[in-house]
């Protein structure tokens, strides 16, 4: 029987390249939120892939971008900090790139400093002809000595085992850090906050989502009269402007109702119990400078 292996893997790349979508496919669970908007991921979230001969602990990180606030600075610091403690790095780029841009050059320079085993993941291969893809692979191979190069379409689950197999080859023998039925280190409260934010990201105008923060203020487990388990969850969506508050609530409260409805459905699927979700909206134009809130987004190993 093969010796059991384990290790930590960080996924890094620019914003909106598909890191979180890939991770959910690798874990086969909706561990991290996804939305077709940049800077969806704000914190380093651990996700665990349990295999027959290995346990791979992934760290999904915020996308690398030019910081414009204390929150942005914290997010980028979280992404770089996660690289220090891992065994393997997945560096993700888009197949539509024609050259190594400034952002990816910056990431490559960091990778050269830390000298970790790195796999290049080229995402969105369905969008380009094969010859363009081969040319891009050659360009990146000239820039860095990758342990492997894997072209993928992160929305397709068939690529998951290919990526996991390559990671497993690079890991050393090690113990199980988590139980086999665990697939994330997030608390139920954190998962609820992220699911609510995900729905806001999906349904709101582009200028609103990155100015919001979700805080669960009550998370209580109880039994109904029919002895059915139910979670009572009260959460507040904080936004930076009064005008944003109006957009989030919507005409006759319809937008807030829509966010709550879809979030509740996802949470019931994830938690496998009934959820009673209540949402409020408040304005706090400096929430993203609040040190207590920013602590939540800092990387801890």
Helical region count?
9
Mean pLDDT: 84
Low-confidence stretches: 37-42
Assign an overall shape.
Answer: globular
Strand order of the largest sheet: 2-3-1-4-5-6
How many strand segments?
Answer: 9
Order of secondary-structure elements: EHEEHEHEHEHHEEHHEH
Q: Do you know the CATH architecture of the largest domain?
A: 3-Layer(aba) Sandwich
Proportion of residues in extended strands: 15-25%
Rg from alpha-carbon coordinates: 20 Å
Short structural description:
With 301 residues, the protein is α/β, with parallel strands linked by helices.
Describe this structure in words.
The chain has helices spanning 19-27, 70-83, 102-114, 130-143, 160-170, 188-203, 242-249, 254-271, 291-295, and strands spanning 5-13, 45-50, 54-60, 88-94, 117-123, 148-151, 212-223, 229-239, 274-283. The protein is α/β, with parallel strands linked by helices. It folds into two domains: 5-170, P-loop containing nucleotide triphosphate hydrolases (Rossmann fold, 3-Layer(aba) Sandwich); 188-295, K homology (KH) domain (GMP Synthetase, Chain A, domain 3, 2-Layer Sandwich), CATH 3.30.300. A six-stranded mixed beta sheet has the order 2-3-1-4-5-6, with helices on both faces. A hairpin with a 3-residue loop joins strand 2 and strand 3 (54-60). The longest helix has 18 residues, at 254-271. The two termini are 31 Å apart. The model is unreliable at 37-42 (pLDDT under 50).
